[in-house]
Structures are given as structure tokens and as C-alpha cells.
Amino acid sequence: MADESRDLPPPGADPMDDEQFAGHDPLAAQPPPATVPPVVVPRWVQMVTLPLAVVALYLVARAAGTVLLVFVVAAVVALILNPLVTFVERRLRFPRGLAVAAVYVGLLSALTGLGLLLANPIADQANALGHDVPHLVKSANRSLSDVQDYFDRKGIHIQVKRQGQTAVQTIANKLGAATGSIASTATDLLKTVVTGALGLILVIVLSVYMLLYADRIGGLVRRVMPPGDGTPEDDYPTRVQRAVGGYLRGQLLFSVCMGIGAGLGCFVLGKIGVFPAGDDYAFAFGVFFGLMELIPFLGPILGALPPVLVALFENPVDAIWVGLFFLALQQIEGHVVAPQIFGKTLRINPLLVIFALLLGGEIYGILGALVALPLAAVARETVVYLRRHLVLEPWGTPHARDLPPPEPARCPECDSEVAGDDAFCRACGAPLGSPVVTRH
User: Fold this and answer.
1) Quick check: bond before 227 cis, omega within 30?
2) Other CB atoms closer than 10 Å to residue 404's CB: what's the count?
3) What confidence tens digit (pLDDT) does each residue in 243-292 have?
4) 433 φ/ψ sector (left φ>0, alpha ψ -120 to 50, else beta)
5) N or C: which end of the chain has fewer CB within 10 A?
């Protein structure tokens, strides 16, 4: 028989202080109590404390600025990775710190493996595109010359292509005029890149600490929030973690759907002759577009650039059709696909999905839009949980139907029931006085 003493905590230690002996997810629910009465919020708290708390939170969030955004992003990353860390900790019996390190290494390895898996087909299509570049340049020269001839015949004095210059040279000359402004912004761009890199490192470091202290964070949240019944369905940290997991599933499904849509669209345009290169590079275009969909707002534009540029070198008219296709795809994405997918995975109304994305982008730009949906999911779970466990003390005079029935009037001498209009007690004859007051 195995020695069961190894599973016991050392003498004098609190079993709940050590996650190794807890035997469950640090964000999982605690054993259910016998009863969970709702927390009643008094009227004076509703009138004074709650408004002051809202104003204080707004002022703190406004003063924190980017710092708050970094912590929010780190918290979202930690909530996404916590189920994997808990799985490794349970199944492999790793210490918490080693489990966190294993998850990060495994995630990096998985992303590297996925990149290598997709590298061959994308590289083949990229090489094919490189071999076709001279042909595309010649096609662009012919198209540009045709456009210039058309303008010349119509008497339109617009110089699209100068004599003796290729299309690439013409475009280069146009870009050369803007080199001054580009150089002036190079320093700002470098600062932005450095700041973004430092922010990414800080997000990773903070998420690691949040994963290491997940049990303490979960316990603190439970002490602050009204108590649940102890089941995972009524445990606030568990509900929040599941909500963020729903966002991750929705984002992956959304990127896959949009990548497939872009790839199929380019393939169809190539087959019908509108975009000949689309048939050859549909897979690469689709994968790139799907990856770019992970970036809010700018992602659809960045994802559409390669096929539009390739079509522009082939034929400017083809580039117009390709641009119209991606414009229609972006409209379907923003108004149909995204609200429906995230509305179902996050259990949020599609109108609120659109509102959250616009609000997050207005406050913090791209990063704000990136964390807007997981925060909206957390806000939904918070409202549902508080509605279940908080009761606001009612305001105003209660209605008569809500009052208990009045007790009958009684004689102060013999405690016998008397009628409201009696001047003397019918049992003992004692004077009752006027009027007889009914006790409640």
C-alpha cells in the first residue's frame, strides 16, 4: 500500500495556503456553504458610496492611462493561459512555477511549429510570385502606357508615365518626393517600435506573476465579491475565466472564417479571369489575411494589401475589382460575421459587440479594441453574478398590498379582541378610549 502520508501537509501548516495540497484549479470554486443569503445593499450605500466609487474608478482609470492598459492585457493573457497551466500542474504534477514555464515554452514551440508547417506552401507561392515579378512589371508598364495614351487622346493633361520610364521608375519617383516626410517621421516610428517592444515584455512578465499568484488573486476576488454557492457555475473567478476562454475561441474561429473567405474569393476571381494571380496564390493570401484579422481595425487593410498590389501590377482594372472584393469582405466581416460569432461565444448581443469594439478603439486605439471584447465578456459575467447575489434595499413607501395584514385591536385590560368602534370592552367592560389603535 502506498504511503498516504506523502499527500498530507506538514504539521502546523494551513492546507489552503499551499496550492500543492489544494488539489484543484486556484480559480476553481470552494466547497459550497450550507446557505448563501444575498447581500443587501442599504439605501445610504446606494446613494453615497456607489456614486463615489464609480467616480473614483473613473479618475483612477483616467490617471493610469497606459499603465492600466498594460495590466488589463496581462490579465487577459493570464486568464487565457491559466487553464493550460492548471492542466500541466495536475497531470504532470509540476510545481506551479515550472508549469507556467512549461506552458510558455510549449506555446512558443507550437507557434514555431505552425510557422514551419505553413512555411513550405507559402514559400512556394512566394517564390512563384518572385519569378512572376518581371512579367507583372511588364504588364504594369503596358497598362500604364495604355492609360497615358487614353489621357493623351482625350486631351487630358495628366502625366501618368514619362517617356522612357518604366512603371516601377514612375512609382519610385512619386515615392521619392515623399522621402522628406518619411525621414522626419522615422524617429517617431523608432520610438513607437521600442515602446511597443518594452510594453510586450512587461505584459509577459506581469502575466507570469499573475499566473504564479493565481490562487491568491482568486481568493482575494472571492472575498471582495458576494459569496457564491461554491459550484463552478456560481463561482465568480471561474465564470470570468470561462468568459475569456469564450473570447479566445471566438477570435480563432473568426480568423479562420475570414482567412477561408479571402482565400476562396481570390481563387474564384482567378478562375473567372478577373484576377489571374489569385488562382495561384489563393492559399498564401488567405493565410495572411486570417493572421491579420487578429489585429483590430488595421488587420483587414493589411491583409488586403498583398493581393491588391499584385493585381495592380497585373492590371489596374483588376486591382479595382480586387479592392472592391476585399471592401465587401470587410463590410461583411464587421457587420455580420464578427457580431454573430462573438455574440454567440461571449453570449453578448451583437449590438454590444460592435459598441465595445468602437468604444475600445476610441479610448485606447488598436490595443483598446483588442481587449474590448474580453472586457465586455467579463463585464457581462460581473453583472449576471451581482444580480444573483446582490439585493438593493427598496426606496419609497411600500404599497399596501406588500404590507402584512393588520392585527386586530385588543383590550388593554384583558387582551380580548374588540371592534374598532367599541367604547367599552365587551368581555370585561373596561373603557377603551377613542379611537382604538390597531397594532401592526
Assistant:
1) no
2) 6
3) 998 898 998 999 999 999 999 999 999 888 888 888 888 888 888 898 88
4) left
5) N
